[in-house]
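Quick one, T. Sequence first:
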Amino acid sequence: MKALVYHGPDRLDWEEVPDPRIIDPTDAIVGVDSVTICGTDLHIRKGDVPEVSAGRILGHEAVGTVEAVGSAVSTVKPGDRVLVSCITACGRCRFCREHRYGQCLGGGGWILGHTIDGTQAEYVRVPFADTSTYAVPDHLDDEAVLMLADIMPTAYEVGAVNGRIRPGDTVVIVGAGPIGLAAVLSAKLYSPGRIVVIDIADGRLDAAKQFGADLVVNPDFQDPVEAVRAVTDGLGADVTIEAVGTPATFELCTTLVRPGGHVANVGVHGAPATLHLEDLWIKDVTITTGLVDTWSTPTLLDLMKSGQVDPRPFVTHRFALDDVLDAYRVFGAPADTGALKVVMHNTRIHSTT
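Structure tokens:
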């Protein structure tokens, strides 16, 4: 089969590799129909994730068709159309029993495209298939469902749920990339009073308004602290969601939150951020962090089926799977391309069946 292989920093190749095979009785082999690229993949490409070794097939999100299953798999069968989750769950360890699948002790967690071969390929081996794949309803298209592999559950769980958004709240989201925009959709499910989005890219602020933001702020032209205080009677936001992953954006979120409010950190940080406890200790502020667990995926699928969540506008660019290197170039330069999410469709593996 063909797959995207990491050979070290800034060295990705679309090349011929051996087909995956069943290793454990809980495995499934899934033929990849549609796949996307995550910001984490860009960090891997740059060499920022040392756990990813040379020779690894990248990718941790896909919609596909089950080709084969191990002897212990009972809930999916060949021919089933499934969503492959970014998080793999053994379903038995302490953390899986608490629905903290991202912390799985039984061989799961974030492993696809990280510690085992991933989804940016024609086929992928999915461990613990019963608890790591989700049936795709017939009337939902691949592109929409694919957004539920990572960005939507991440924004919903680590942003909206951890932030404890309540009806009428002022929610401030710092960062209008795919995760920040997914946080807008997630926040809307809780009937906030207003959603404010802060970003330095006007194109992404325009997208935020299309996704449902009530107010957008570009810090290059407007002081975000003054803007938020102006719409909250000087108090600050009830909930701030950090969706970038830099020290400056995290510290901004802690500045914008009101006494008694919540800061939900979603962004992946690669450098230390200062926690200003000298200011925060007296304000009763709650700060949460987390890796997505994907416990919400069935709920989000139900919301999609009922029309309450529509993630299709995330997809701005489409490619054939063979053109994955072009997709990386487009996704990696959003300021020039306007890319939010790119999707690669595989038209080869099922064309003769």
